[in-house]
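Chain X:
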Amino acid sequence: MRKDGGDASTFTGVPSSTGVPSSAFRALLSGAIDYAGLFPPAALGMASAVREYAAQRSGPDAWALARFVVPVSRLEELARATPETPGAVWHLSVLLGGDLASDLRALEEFNRRYGARGAKAAPLLGDSVEARADSVEAIGRLLALVPRELTAYVEVPVEPDPAPLLAAIARGGGRAKVRSGGVTADAFPSPAALLRFLRGCVNAGLAFKATAGLHHPLRAEYRLTYAPDSPTGTMFGFANVFLAAAFLHAGMGDEDALRLLEERDAGAFRVSADGVEWRGHRLTRADVEAARGRAIVSFGSCSFAEPVGETRGLGWLSPG
């Protein structure tokens, strides 16, 4: 099995520094946000994205922060932009391009040069990679190339039924990735297609991450970009996606899970230190932690402040 192929390694649980148990939703969000500030709609320059990530690493919500997402072609640019100050390792999720063998060699060299920086600068370590594949054969070739010390995410299309692709990822010791939105309305999969992906991951015992269009906790109409004249579209909420996956993992049927993916009413949820309830269905804290440990890894967002701030605004991060 490839490193961490079956465990959501970024999740460690969230103890409370006050001695009061934190909310179960905080456990759901712990180490769950991969920072993708380089990508649309934020599309920050490298220096700005690095400053934001560095600030959030030392901020009060660092518990929710996961990896810095960067294309393999920009690794050297990242190294030049990172502050030369000591600190904990920066864990990177590296997007591979079309020449997998060449990209993996470049990553290996980068890790050799920057993965053990010590007293003068925080280490930079690309220990997670992401790549696209749309066939069982392509998935097999990809996972055969990725060194076993790396965690590999394979982005697959949700149409048609991705079950054969998910099974191939599981056989190869990888993890799945789903694109749940974008900067145009047609980039968002249907709720039924996203549900089928989530169900397929649960059936295959496969951990997954999601990317794009998940800045907000709940499904609703939002602007698709940060431009003042941006069109709007219906986006999935990361809470909808994560909770649907957690409920599926705990045995929920597809009909209820589909309703949960489409839920827009914050009042339909009750969050406490002991669990999360939605319209008569309940996850215990142990259920949440089990789902994070075995199924739900993270979601990529070009904003870190939006998802954490809006979740706090709903009151879901306090014990309840």
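Chain Y:
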Amino acid sequence: MRLPVFFTDPEFDRLRGITLMLIATLSFSGMHATIKHVSADLHPFEIAFFRNFFGLVALFPFFIRHGLAPLKTNRIGLHFGRVGLNIGSMIAFFYAISITPLAEVIALSFAAPIFATLLAIFFFRETVGITRWTAIFLGFAGTIVILRPGYEAIGLGPVLALMAAMTWGSAVIIIKKLSKTDSSVTITAYMVLFMTPLSLAPALFVWEWPSWEQLAWLALIGSFGTAGHLTMNVAIKLAPTNVVMPIDFVRLIWVAIIGYFIFAESPDIFVWIGGAMIFGSGIWIAHAENQRRREPTKDTDD
């Protein structure tokens, strides 16, 4: 049975990438909401462990079908480095979700590309022109709009959300390098394979055996997370970053709706304005990066 042209014709790569990115936003939003729900009874450290454990279980069908082929890589060091950053980001992010309104955490998480750009400047000596510097300052202005230092006390949740964005931005740089040689399944497989034992260590200090109902929710978190990473990784491979990443802003809309109807959370106007500024900054950076790759000699224009 032949697949429809949409799934095979390269001309539809961008549309497939956009579609998969939209699915990723739904998956991640479902994961965020479920984390919020379960964190009322379980510690975020334990939730992080079960997210990785059940995420690994969700990949079993790939191993059954392909054996150990998804683990074939020549860049094991990069995978491990990415996981080290990922585990710090995940724990900080999960803790932030447990104590902070969903929409505020997600809005601040959009700062990840800004941190990724700054890290590329200082660690990889990338040349950045006035356009991308302007985008960086716009993004940080957006975080100030959300946090409003001096007008409101900055709580632990927003600080953890920014820390998560910073470490995730670092991981994104490594993911981009890995995606040039390794498949999306390989990248995701090593993530959950390494992160499961690493996340168990902090979870043991706050361990409580979950009920069967809680285990079902935790399994859903793992499934949502793995589905989100797989679809996002494939989307980034199929289409340019500046094409698929604007779809990520839909995540703020999803979590705002979920937060309002399920958790009685109403994000204020500053969250929307600041989130839009941060996200716009990320899109601006992605567009400038795309232009830089097309015109490698014009480093000072982006």
